[in-house]
Each structure stands twice: as C-alpha cells, then as structure tokens.
Amino acid sequence: MSDISLINSAHQPGHTCLAFAKDGSRIYTGGSDSLVRIWKTNLGAEQEPDVAIEAMDGITTVAAGNNAWFSGSEDADVRQYEKDKHEVSGLVTTAIGVPIRCVAVDPKGQRITVTSDEPTVKVIDIEDTTKMFVLKGHTKAVRQATWHPSGSLLTTSGADGKIVAWDVSDSEPKNITTIEGIIPEVYDTDSADFRHDCSAVWHTSGQYFIVATRAHEIISISRTTWSKSATFSDPSCSGATTALALSHNGIYLASASTSGISIWSTQTRRLLFRYQGSVTAPVTKIAFSPTQNLLAWIDTDGVLTRWPDPIPSSSPDPVKLISVGAAVGIPKKRGTTPNLFGDDVEEKDDASKAKDLNLDEEDEYDATMGDLDDDNWILDDIGGGLQDDDGDAKWAAKEGIKEMAQPPFQPGSTPMENKKRYLAYNMIGVIEVTDQDTHHIVNVEFHDRSARKSYHFTDHFKYELASLGERGALYACPPEASHPAHVLYKPYGTWASQSEWQYELPQGTRVIGLAAGGPPPTQSMRQKNDMDIQGNGNVVIATSDGELIFLTGGGVERHVMSLPGDFVCMCAGREWVFIVTRDGSTTMDGSQNLTGRLIKFDDFCMLQKDTVPIPKGHTLKWIGISEEGAPIIYDSSGVLNALPRFRIPFAATWTRVLNTNTLDRKEGKHESYWPVGVSGETFMCLILKGRQEHPGFPRPLIQELPLKFPFKRTDAKEGPLEEQFARETMLLDILRDGLDEDELTSTDISRRELALDKSLIQLIQFACKNDKLSRALDIAKLLHHTASFDMAIKVAGFYHLIGLQEKLEALKDDREDGPDKLEAQRERRRDRNAQFVPIPDNKRYSTFAAEPARPKPFQDFRPPPAIPRPGLERAAGASTKATGTSQITESSQFSMDDEPSFDFNAHQDIENSNYSQESSPDGKRKRFEEDSNAENDAKRRAVGDSAGDMRTAQARSNPFARKPGAVDNRNPFTKSTETNKSVHKSDSFFNKIDAAETEKPKRTTTAKGKSKDKKETGRQTTLFGLPAVPPPEKKAPGRKKKANVAEESQSQSQRGSAEPTAKPAEEKTSAESQDTDVTMLESQESQVLTELAEESQERTASPEPIDWPDSPAPVEPEESTLVEIVA
Amino acid sequence: MALPPSLRLSVTPPELELIACEQLIEIIPLVAMERTAFISGAFGPLRPPAKCKVPIWMATNLKLKKKCHIVPPDWLNVDFLQDRLTHETSQPEFSQLPFRFAEVAKVLLDVASDDFENPERLRSLLKDIQEARQAKSREGLSKIDHSELSLPNLCSMEINEIRPVFIKAMGVLSQLVREPEGRLPT
To answer: Which segments cross the bilayer (chain B) (predicted)?
Structure first.
C-alpha cells in the first residue's frame, strides 16, 4: 500500500461530488463553484483539469454513463456531456426551480434516475429523454438514488428518513418496500447532515446493500428480508459515516467518516486498511476506480484526494471479478484483517494466524455466499486464482517503477494550481506566474528590495522553468510548434544596455534543468554602477539531450558537458554548480541512487562527488546553497543535510543538520516544511499545514527554524552545549575553508571561536564538577585560543583537580610551543588551493561600495577616540597619557586580536551573559553591555539617556579607576576561595603564569585585596574618612582596607548607572568621588618615584585586556614588590 | 469612557500609544540595513528575508515606507481573540491579554492591516473584547468600596479609562468612611 496520495484543490469549499468515468480514465468532480472539473487519472497532482462551466449554480451531483456523463446542479438542470469532454451535449431534464440532488445511471447505461428536492423521482431513458416515468412515494426531498446491479431494482433515500426500493424492470414501476428508521431524517437542505451520503450501496452480488445509518453504523441490509443482516464495525472507526463506496468487484468497501478513510472487507466485514493521512474536512463522496487500484474522494473543502494503490499487492485486486473459489482461497493472503495500518510486512508475519482464523470463517462465507449463483456474480473457478498471482507480480513491478525514478525538478517551484504557480522561491526572491490562458504573467519580487528591483513581464512563451540567481534570473520555455525551446537570462544589473539575452536550443530539445549562479553583489543592483566588474554570474542548462551547457552571465558559451546520468536537479552557488543526477537506475529496495556533484565554473572540474544520502523509499525534495556557500539537501523524510567542508576536494561528507520530525513545534501538529534556504544557523522554510504539499497564494511568511544537530544526549546542560559546539564548529569550518591564502584568521572567526571557547569552558566546568576528568581533557583539546587554556586551568584549580590542572598546563605548553594551529591550517589551505582557488568570499551584505574606511555614523559602535588634554597633563602626569594611548590601541586592536580574552565573570552567569567578546578595557565592555541592554529592553531608554555622556566618560576613562577590580566583586569564585585557603599549593603554578603574562601581577593584588574585604564590609563606613595615605610600613594591610572602600564606592557608582566622569583634576580634589585610596596612593608614589610612575600606573589602573577572575591563591610577591617600590 | 475635559487628568490614548510603541515586534524587512544605533538602543541588522525584532515605532515607520512586513504578534489573530472573547463573555473575571494590547493592536491595524489575515474581523473582535471588558470594569467600579478594588488583568488603556473616576471616587469614599470613625470618639 502506498502512502503517497495526490491532492488537488478542486473546488471552493461547500458541497462537492465526484464520479469515475466507466473506463476509469477520468474523474469528474463538481462543487459549489458551479464548475465540473475533469481530471485525468493517469496524470499526477500537477495537471490542469478541463472545466465544464455551463451550470448556473452549485453542482450537486455528477454521474458517468457509457457514452456520456451527467451533472446535476442547484439551478434545477441535469446536463448531459460527451464522454471525457467538457462540451455539453444536451439538457436531460429540469426540476422546475428546485435543486437536483442525485443523478444515477443504471448499470446498463440506458436510463438515469434523477432526484431533486421534489418528493418525486424521475427515471429517464438516455436515448429518448421523453421516455420517462415518475416514482411517487417519498414525502420530502429525495437525497440519493442507487441502482441494483441487475438494473431492475432502484433504491432511493429520502430526506424523510425512508429508503424505498422500486421495481423498474417493466414500464409500470412498483414500490417494493419502504424501509424506515435506518437513515436519518434531515429536513434542512443546508445542514451538514444533508450532504452526507446516505445512499444504499448495492453489493455486486445483488444480495444486499450497505448503508450508513443514523446511529453512525455501517450495516448491510439483505434483499430477501429487507432487514439488517450484518454490521461493519471497528473500535477505531467512529463518528458519522459521510460517504461509502464499493470496489468494482465488491470485495472492498471504502467508508469515510470523521475519523478517517477506512477500507473494509465485505466478506469478513473487518477493517482492513486505513488511510494514513488525516481527513480535515468531511468527505462528501468517495469512489473506487472501476479499472484501477485507486481510491478517490472529495471533501467539503473542495479538495480532491486520490489514493493510488490503497490495496497492497499482497491482497486481492479491487477491480478483477473473482470467483467464489478464489474468494475462499484469498483470505489466506489478505490475512490479518484487524491490522490498522495495513503494513505489508506485519501481514505476512501474521499469515499463519490468519489462516486459522479464516478456517473458522469459511463456513460463514458459505452461508452468506451460498446463493451467489444467481444474478451477475461471475464464476471463474480456475482463472481467478491464476489471475490473482499475475496481479501480484504486476503490482510489484508497477510499484517499483512508480515509486522510484524521481522526475527532474526545479528546487523551489510548485505545480500550477488555480492558474498560479511559483517558478522559484529562494532566499533571493520569488518568481510567481499567473496563467492568463493565452499568455503568462511573470512577477519577480525580491526579499531585499534595496538590492534588486522587482519587475514583471508578460510571457508569451509560457516559461516553465526558472532559476533566481544572485545576479540574474533565468527562464526556460518548452518547445512548441512555432518555436524551439529557449533560455532567457535577465541580469539584474543595469550598467550595460541590452544585458538580457536569449539562447535557443535546437528543435526537439527540451530544457530539463536550469541554474543561475554567481557571487552575491557587493552593492545594490538598483543603482547604475560601473565599479562592478564581477559580471552577471554563470548560467548552467541541462537539456533532454543529456548535455550540461555552461554559459557566462554575458551569454558566452563556455563548455558543454555530458550528463553522467538521469538529471534530477541542480542549483548554482558562487563558484560552482551543485548537480544531482541518477547514475544508473534506482534499486529494487527503493533507493533513489542519486549522486551529487559540485562542478566549478572556472575550469569545469569536479570539486565533490558523493552519493546523496536519501533514505530508502524517500525522494529528494529540495536542494540549495546555504548563505555560507555549503550545499544543502532536504528529503521527503524531513531531514536536512549539509556539506560543510565542500572546499576540500573529494573529501566532504554530508552532515545531518536538522531532523524536522523531532522538532518540538511539530508535536501534536500535522505540518510539513517547505524549504526556502539556510542562513547561518537558521533553516528558512514555509510551514505547510495538514497535507498541503506546496505553498499556495498569497505568499506565506517565511518561518525560521534553528538548525539542530540530531545529537542524542539528553542531558539538559551538557547536551545543548555539545550540540551548539558541533554546529558552530561546522560553520567555522566553512568560514575557515573560505579564507584567503595569506589570511590567518578573520575578525568574525576569532569572535566565533571565542564564543565557542566560552561554551567549552562551561563544559569543562560541568565535567570537573562531575569528576569526569578525561572528558574535561577531551574538551580542553578542542579549545581554540591559548588564553582559554588558562581559563580551563583555573576551573580545574577551583575544583582542586591538580592532576587535570597539570595536564592542561602541559596541553597549553604544547599548544604554545608547537606549530601555530592557524598557520598549520593556512598551510593546508595553501596546499589545497594549489588545486582549487576559491573565489574570495565576498562580504555578503556588508556595506555597498567596497567597505568604506569608516562605518556610517549611526553604525559606529566603537568608542570615540580619546582626546589628549595637554592642559591636564601636569595633574595626572605621564600616567594619563599612558592610559589614553593604551586604551586607544586596545580598542583598535581588539578587532584584529588573535587571542581575545575572557571575561570570566560574564561566563559565570550563563543565562544573561554579557560576554565581552573582545579583549576590552572596561569602558569598552560597558558600552557593549549598554547596547545589548538597550536592545533587550527598549524601555531602558528612559533611564539610559545618559548614554551619550557615558560614552565620552568611557572614552577618557579615568586612569585612576580600578575598573577591573570593580567587576571582580561579582565573581562567585571569590567567596569560595576564602573558604578554601588550602589552595595555597598552587602558588607555584600561578607564579608560572605570572612569569608568562607580565600584566597579570596587579590583578592578583587587587583580587586579593578584595577577597579580604568581603569580610570587612561591615566596617566600611567607618573607614570612609580615614586618611588617604597610611604610613608606609603599615602599607599592606591599610591598602587592603582602602581597596575595600574603593570597591564599595565604585560598585555604588556603578549601580547608579551613570558612571562618574573621572577627570584627573577632579579626582585630585574630591575625596568622596570615585578616586580610591589606592589610586591616591599610586599618585603619591608617582610623585615620589617618577621613574616608576608609569609602571605603577599600568599596574593599578591600566585597563586589563584580560579580565581574570580572582585567583584562588593569594600571591604574596606582589605585595612585597609594592612595598619595595614605596620604600 | 468619554469624559468631560475637567476629568481628563490622565494621559490620553495617543500618549499611551506612544509608550506602547517602545515594545519590540517582529518584522520581515524588505531592505537591508546594518545594525544601527538609535537613542533607545541599537537595532538590526536587517537582512531580508530573515525576521528582526525592532520597536513598534520603527516597524510602523518602515511599514509606511513599504520597507517591511509586520509579523502579527501571536495574540493578534482571529482564533486567539475569538477564544478570549468567549472567555470574556462567559467568565466573570478579565481574561489574560497583553498589558498594552489595545494600543499595539490599534497601531498595527492602522498601519499594517494588509499584513493581517482578515483585519476587519480582528477589528470587530477587538471592539467586542473592549466592550465586554468595559462593561466589566464599570461593574467593578460599582462595587467599589473604600479599602480596595481588585481588577486583575486590567490593561493599560482600561486603567487609564477608569483612572479619573476611580481616583475621585476613592478619595470621596475614604473621606466618607474616615469621617464617622474620626467622630466616634468625640
């Protein structure tokens, strides 16, 4: 049984009807939009059906005869049409002002029954419509009429709740019987109940009919007794039955109810199969094809659904007439009837069990089927069984062909539906087509209207394929009598006149695939600009001749390549085209056997070749290029795969980046995702509700789903971090691979690496916490920056893991001594580039016109340059200058800095980490925080009006302020350090670091001072007024206390959100302001020892590029040096 | 509640709208823009077709220049509002709605009605909800006593509406209640 159904939106919502042509080649559907559409069953969902438009009001019924078909509508007319055509051939009858309700053609195709809202029923001869008789017996509208297979008996179901059986064999019709109390009484013709199919469906044996009752049961009523003989019931089938249909040979009964579409066995009256999809609207009519294994139904939403192969090949065919003998033999195969999902495999497993079961039932069959010999039941003792086996083989073969061999498609296009379709829908824009019968209107719209200008044009060639590239749109039309196939390229750029060109293919050749590629524009395509030398990109055309034609964006033919197999689809990136073909054939077990290739535009060589990973039984749905340039595929099983290392020739592997089946949002919903593109870490898609396969009109909004590697670890903390690390690493790899030959790294990469190191440190912390040392070591090996190792070492130290600490030390030394990782990578890149030179990665969006030297005024987030103030020089001494300059260099450096450092404090509170991404002087860090806060909470504006002041304040940041220290007091490690004084052991280790990093010593001093302060906070107020300069001999302790005060005052001032503008002059005079005792002390020192001024300044006040947390161990040497200096 | 000018002590609805315009809303930009600093903070970058969160004032500004589509907030759709309306009409208490729903909905429906499905129905639903809530707040005011009036889930616009009456009434009531107590001892 196949689960793939063909869905068409056929009519407007409302009452709908459906009928198969006698030969099964057409389906007629009618709806409240007064149209009848004629669908060809051999075509897929993308067909455009013929339309019969004669009716003036909603179509209520359609029926097919041998040489004609009939429609009845609410305008009271029954029309006759020619077989398979939409030309009306005559008016059969009219009901004088009341809607027609049902038209039924007798089995011989000679007479039709017409029922209407009148209580009378007409039986009319098709050949001579004047020959008719009227049946009177109902008291209300007659809803349905059905013929007995013999054609001599007619049953009508009325709104009055009666089922009347008529004998119409001779010219005098007789009322045989009236059955009441089975079907509901429905008086309101507009009610939903009225639309339910209450017809009495005669079994092909003619022994009984099946009807849906008002008690929501499906029962069979025997012809001999006119009473209920059996019930079709199953616990999984509930709700009102809205439509019933019998298969051509009478073996299967299909019913539609609110719980879904079910297929029953008429012999065992058991539920055999169910339709896998859900049913969204009440089904108004369901029918089996008379010639095929096909079930079709239509619902009140006007949606026509065709379910090919509802009966699996392991069960008897629904079409062929089979004998009693076969019927008895077959159940062995049909087997487990209660199997809800009709799974073939399970069925086979249960075959033996079913056999037993069937043995019991055989007697019953004999009883019910005993008198089959009369009427039309065909007996065929020998042929039936043989035929059935043939059938099996045939179906298997047919399935094999049909399920496989996915046809070529253009990614991002949809079939024509209601005269509209998308030719392309990607991250650049949308091409929409409207069918105007004689011509098409092509409308091209771009997501970014500032970069490209939307346009539309009238298309007389009916372009059926299109590709929207970075630099132009490409269209292809099929060949027609008047013209051969051609390709039209319309570049967006306007600098050259006549840039659009047409490329004709020889007669008889079709275009089966198209791709327009090229580097993204560096500036708006809307403006005329002569600076752009990158041209119009590249064009690739796949033809039915098995050729792959490469042209430049200017229309120069460059290369013709042979397609290595059946073409499936392609899309073009910046420097290559990604083409998917089927090399060889599909495999018998359901694999598409597709191969993906990357072919470069510059030398037409292959860059990658790999099998496209599509699960068996699934098809490729979409291919695309991510914003970073990596090929992406999406298959019908809902998995998104990417090829991140595509720049390494023949080495890239497909990475599973998202499984949409496991998305949280999908829980409990029936929706699918129609891919548009992948940008960074988001999957851009359109979300389709229910069984929709393609997006409709108007254009739905693009939704963003975050990519998520399907990692299996469910640990709430570590799992997401590991997943994030892997995902980010993938992106980093793409970026690194795209670096130039002599670039070591880029700002963006360092920033991302830094962010990654941060999460790695967190992982190390978790690992240390749980004593998983080897895990911690593994993670440490992944760290990017040497500075991060120091962090890891600190974390290990905090958890007293001396062994790990030493190992990390060794790792760090190894990293430092060994060849530089980045250089090694660059070396590898160079080697690779000897074979493949990627086009340098253009800044995708960035500013137009070749990176202005300075960003635009409102986009400048750097602190303004510090203004040197010679007038104040004397007061602050050399120190002001020193800090001023150091800060400037710092801020300009940070962007290029290879080893940005961490703000450990920020890393502590993971949730709202204002993680300072650059090595920052304090002022810089604050600014960042300001930005992000402002973004998060716009209301902050009310308070934050001092932003401007702040910036200037930060620019001339106080050389005396102890800013790094101020941040430290949030450090959660501080406290614990105090409690664990025993960590002194690691002194030696810290000294080592100190030796390595000259800047660090001061840090530890402040840290120490502070950690002591914590205890003394109670006394702070009393300390406030103490003399600024303690006697030199008491220096160390005194200093600590004062540091405390400074700390306090500083944190207070910080809380007040406005940072005091710290000018050296001010500081000198005001003791209350932010200037601290320590800095006073420093300035004194600088007075005393001018030669040391600079050094001391640097120690205490210079903004530390690395914002280390408190060290667990106090470092005495610092203190001593200080004392020495003063002494 | 229309009030004579003498009673209009509180902020006017347009002023409330202005305040509400500080809230962030998702847009789909149609133009590209780098991250840009404004007085209230830095917003962006705008990278079509990716969504971006910007304040409503910026969204409306861009919308009026046809440079973005506004993504309706999850509470501003027919289903949700219908649900709230039935809740509002069947339950005695106020249903939960965003604090500034009236202002935000008005601003968005004014400038970006084409970004909504069925804006007319939204408008009528909002009107119905507003009326249902007004009826409740009137009823609440009639039950006012000197000590407290608890109206949870009242929204800014409604608070603003009842503010003048309420303050006065509360003042008078507390006077009325306090006086006898003050006199009792004498």
So the answer is: none
